[in-house]
């Protein structure tokens, strides 16, 4: 997720989403974090944003 954040901050949104989409896990906490990160990238409000 750090790479997706770095790409997002350097305005490389397509690549940032590619990294998020590549995450394959059954860990509920990680899945929630990925969804929150995706929402931030899409400009949506989230209750517990990730830094």
Automatic annotation (TrEMBL):
Source organism: Cerasibacillus quisquiliarum
Domain of life: Bacteria
Protein name as annotated: Uncharacterized protein
